[in-house]
């Protein structure tokens, strides 16, 4: 089982091209040494991540793009098997790519910016309800909140005081930004997602 996130940038024409360098940097951070990502059609992308890291990866991509307000990102998370793996993600195929495409195609009709599709309908229903609730906070991230979420996800082991030093802000402003972003609730959702994912994989 692998995870493919398919996405595109909303409002890319309304902002400077800084979103593109931010997107590339974010994809490189998430993909790490495996380097399995691709940008195509100008503002669309695909990236392979570990299934358990899907929610954090999506949140990180969202934060990196929301820094370039009014740009935003739409993403379909697919989890499944690979039939044939090629050098380019767009030339590979299998259930995971179908699921990611279905999740992405469902976004416009559902009027949301993030959804997940696996081969387990009950799991999808539960997680998509959590995602829709999380998006109430994520879709309203301002630039500072997005910057702090990005930093907190990059340096998960650091204390808020250390994040403050890194960002050149006060500890209280870092704390306030993460509170506004509902960062701790997002991390709780990530834990629950991992737990439920582990349950379906172990059955």
Please supply descriptive tags for the structure shown above.
five-stranded mixed sheet, SatD, 203 residues, alpha+beta, Alpha-Beta Plaits, SatD family protein
Protein described:
The chain starts with a strand and ends with a helix. Helices cover 55% and strands 16% of the residues. It has a domain at 2-121 and 128-140: Reverse transcriptase/Diguanylate cyclase domain (Alpha-Beta Plaits, 2-Layer Sandwich), CATH 3.30.70. The protein is of the alpha+beta class and 203 residues long. The protein has a five-stranded mixed β-sheet, sandwiched between helices.
Explain the layout of strands and helices:
Layout: E1 2-10, H1 18-31, E2 37-40, E3 44-49, H2 54-66, E4 72-80, H3 95-110, E5 114-117, H4 121-138, H5 143-154, H6 160-167, H7 171-180, H8 183-202
Parallel strand pairs: 4-5
Antiparallel strand pairs: 1-3, 1-4, 2-3
Helix pairs in contact: 1-2, 2-5, 4-8, 5-7, 6-7
Summed up, the helix count is: 8
The geometry reads as globular
Note the quaternary state here.
single chain
The chain-level mean pLDDT equals 93
Strand line-up of the largest beta sheet: 2-3-1-4-5
Number of DSSP strand runs = 5
Largest sheet: 5 strands, mixed
Residue stretches low in confidence (pLDDT < 50, at least 5 long) are none
Helix content: 40-55%
What's the name of the CATH homologous superfamily of the domain at 2-121 and 128-140?
A: Reverse transcriptase/Diguanylate cyclase domain
- Under CATH, the topology of the domain at 2-121 and 128-140 can be stated as Alpha-Beta Plaits
CATH architecture of the domain at 2-121 and 128-140: 2-Layer Sandwich
